[in-house]
Design goal:
There is one protein chain. Helix 4 runs antiparallel to helix 5 (159-172) and helix 5 packs across helix 6. The radius of gyration is 16 Å and the shape is globular. The longest helix is centred in the C-terminal third of the chain and has 14 residues, at 159-172. It is α+β, with helices and mostly antiparallel strands and 188 residues long. Strands 1, 2, 3, 4, 5, 6 and 7 form a seven-stranded mixed β-sheet that branches. A two-stranded antiparallel ribbon has the order 8-9. It has six helices and nine strands, in the order αβαβαβββββββααα.
Length: 188
C-alpha cells in the first residue's frame, strides 16, 4: 500500500499559493499563530514563488497543536502521520500536504524547542521567528533567512534545497555552512 504522507505519497498534489493563503487566513481567524518554513518559507522571504511546492511546512506553538488539527480538519485535511508533541502531517483527499512542527517556547534555551522523531530536541533560535514575507500578496510570518539555512541541516539535500540556500545567500547575505558552500556554488 502506498504512503499517504511525505514525498512519493499517493495521491499527490502540489501546494499552490492560493491554498497556502487560504490556510493562513483560517489559522489567523482561529487565533492560531504559525510561521511558514521550508520551501514556501524561502519563497515568502523572496516575495515570489520560485518553484512548485510539494507541501506547506509550518512551525507553531505546541499548545496550539489541537487547534491546528481542528482548523486543518475543517479545511479538508486529515492527520495521517505523526502527532504532537512531535511533527505531524495532514493531507487532503487529492494529496495536498501540510507538515506541522510544534515547538515549546523556552526562554531559558532562547527559542522554540522542537522534539524530533528520534526524541532529541532541536532549538529554533528566538530571533528566527522574526521573519516576514509575502505569499501571493499576503504578508506572512516566516522563519528568518538565517534560520531557514539552519533547518536545511540534518537531512539529505536535493538540488532544490541547494538552490534555496544559494538564493538565501545571494538575496540576504546569509553565511552558508562550508559543507554546503561548494555544492551551492554549483547551482549558479
Amino acid at each position: 500500500m502506498a504512503e499517504r504522507a511525505y514525498r512519493g505519497r499517493v495521491p499527490s498534489a502540489p501546494m499552490e499559493a492560493d491554498e497556502v493563503v487560504r490556510l493562513l487566513d483560517l489559522f489567523e481567524a482561529a487565533g492560531v499563530e504559525v510561521w511558514v518554513d521550508g520551501g514556501w518559507g524561502v519563497d515568502a522571504l523572496l516575495e515570489e514563488q520560485t518553484r512548485e511546492h510539494d507541501d506547506l511546512d509550518l512551525v507553531a506553538r505546541l499548545a496550539d497543536a489541537q487547534g491546528i488539527v481542528l482548523v486543518l480538519e475543517d479545511a479538508g485535511y486529515e492527520v495521517v502521520a505523526g502527532g504532537a508533541p512531535k511533527s505531524f502531517v495532514a493531507v487532503t483527499e487529492d494529496g495536498r500536504q501540510v507538515d506541522v512542527h510544534p515547538v515549546r517556547f523556552d526562554d531559558e534555551r532562547g527559542g522554540g524547542v522542537y522534539v524530533t522523531d528520534e526524541g532529541s530536541e532541536w532549538v529554533y533560535p528566538a530571533t528566527g521567528f522574526d521573519g516576514r514575507g509575502t505569499v501571493a500578496g499576503r504578508r506572512v510570518r516566516c522563519l528568518t533567512p538565517e534560520v531557514q539555512v539552519l533547518v536545511h541541516d540534518g537531512y539529505e539535500l536535493e538540488e532544490k534545497d541547494y538552490r534555496e540556500l544559494r538564493l538565501l545567500h545571494e538575496c540576504f547575505g546569509v553565511d552558508l555552512p562550508e559543507a554546503y558552500a561548494a555544492r551551492v556554488r554549483s547551482t549558479e
